[in-house]
Amino acid sequence: MDRNAIREAWDDLAAPYAEMRDPDGEDAALIDELLDQLPAHPRVLDVGCGDGMRTLARLDEADAVGVDISRRQLQLARSNVPWARLLQGDMTALPLAADDVDAVTAYHAVFHVPRADHRAVYEEFARVLRPGGYVLSTLGGGRYEQVRSNWLGTGRSMLFSTPGKRATLSLLRDAGFEIVWDRVVDDPLGSSTSFVLARLSA
Length: 202
Hints:
202 residues, alpha/beta, Rossmann fold, seven-stranded mixed sheet, 9 strands, globular
């Protein structure tokens, strides 16, 4: 799937996907742990923000910015988190200036980008982060690139792509990050997912 196909799929999937997800859960609670590492009133970028209920809604004490490729997702987020600044954009070319944010969150987002572009994604995270900033992101497990048809019974296809955990951690290090931890937590669709917290070198 190319970017246009992924964007169109997310426009169609936005509402049913939001209805299927639990807005709470173990993975959402990682946001509080991230905020403990940041200065008061930080600027936090949520990449692949979707309807805003998983991450942006937990950033009401922050200067929150959400980026998503899907216009429909951003419409939902505008209703759910009206205090956040919302931008449509591609995570391989984020619509933010360099050194603009204290942290980046990317929940269940990077693995919807072809794995050949993952290096560019992590380099963009490093570009928009201030020195010493953090990224909290889903960490792909096995190595795969596949299009799942009728995903979640919606009738739409969706791309899933990751070079694997070891390669992803290496890409983060190449982009200038130090790995703080990686762990497995429950995700909003009832399965377990790996996450990584990494800090950009000061």
